[in-house]
Amino acid sequence: MSKQRAGESMLRAEDALVERARRFYAEGRHPAPVRRAATVPLVRPGPAGAGGSEVYLIRRAARMTFGGRYAFPGGGVDPGDAEPELDWAGPGPAWWGDRLGLPPEEAQAVVCAAVREVFEEAGVLLAGPDPETVLGDVSGPEWEAARQALVERRAGLADLLRDRRLTLRSDLLVPWSRWITPEFEERRFDTYFLVALLPEGQLTRDVSGEADHTLWLPPAEAVARAEAGELSMLPPTRVTLAELAACGDPAALPAAAARRDPARPIMPKLELTPGGVPRFSLD
After folding, report:
1. Quick check: 63 pLDDT over 70?
2. Which long-range contacts (CB under 8 A, 24 or more apart) does 24-33 make?
3. DSSP at 196
4. Which of 113, 128, 168, 178 suits 147 as a labelling partner, its CA being 20 to 30 A distant?
5. Alpha-carbon 221 to chain mean position
6. Which residues have a Cβ under 8 Å from the Cβ of 42 and sit 6 or more positions away?
């Protein structure tokens, strides 16, 4: 277990989760199938003079899976994310496959899903006109029309990149971790967390119909507010925020990511502490 995760090896479980787990085991249900997904903790430097970093969080709308909780932009990997014909800069699919423990074509789909989802849900596009350049502002009407086409599945990420002669910048992402939804949940995901720095000149936009609130917070403050009951979030979000807080400055993220094993799956398990309090074990 990593040093950062060791301090978060047991997390208090919400009553609703405990009740779902008890029903699942009491009724002898079988775990739902797992769908592969990608999520992007989007990071930017903290305010001038304050140092540190801030992380972008969205609160899922109540109608959504895991609704009412704060999370990072992300979602399931779609078939269109495996489109092989696209310009690509940065570590290639083989490198990503080695880091994520996947065949290269499947690793490419995870990276493409991450890029697509952060554009769909936050209006941030991790691409550029060439391998050395990153797009600036992408909030204009034409970009919004392109984003909406992705959301409605009228186009895929590869279509967007080809039409605008853009290159996907995989070097703007770093592999961080892999979380699998507990077996008692009705919808389950095998989710790869890929951390990205907010490109200079781009702004996050509250454009996702899947979210009803967004905010930027220092990761340590987000964890403190979660512990105080002000922000509801599931273990993967809370633990990742604690890990990002331990990194401090965003410039430290690549080196921290290189020391991690993002292919190792983490699946929270519900356990009772000696005092009888239900908690999630991450060991």
Report:
1. no
2. 24/183, 24/184, 25/184, 29/184, 31/183, 31/184, 31/188, 32/185, 32/186, 32/187, 32/188, 33/188
3. E
4. 178
5. 19
6. 55, 56, 72, 73, 118, 122, 124, 196, 197, 198, 204
Whole-number Å distance between alpha carbons of 75 and 123: 15
Contacts of 252 (CB under 8 A, 6+ apart): none
Q: How many CA atoms lie within 13 A of 154 on its CB side?
A: 6
Taking only Cα atoms into account, the Rg of the chain, rounded to an integer number of angstroms, comes to 19
Helices 219-227 and 235-247, packing angle to 10 deg: 140
**Cβ neighbourhood burial of 85 (10 Å; 0-12, 13-18, 19+):** exposed
Statement: residue 87 has pLDDT above 60: yes
Q: What tokens were used for 156?
A: 């895929």
The pLDDT of residue 1 is 32
Picking from 151, 92, 88, 89, the residue whose alpha carbon sits closest to that of residue 119 is: 151
| pLDDT tens sequence across 15-48 | 677 777 778 878 888 989 999 999 999 999 998 7
Chain centre distance of CA 261: 16
Residue pLDDT, tens place only, 199-235: 999 999 887 666 688 999 999 999 999 989 899 998 8
125 has which bridge partners? none
- Domains of the chain, CATH where assigned: 3-281 (3.90.79.10)
pLDDT at 16: 72
User: Percentage of the chain with pLDDT > 90?
Assistant: 68
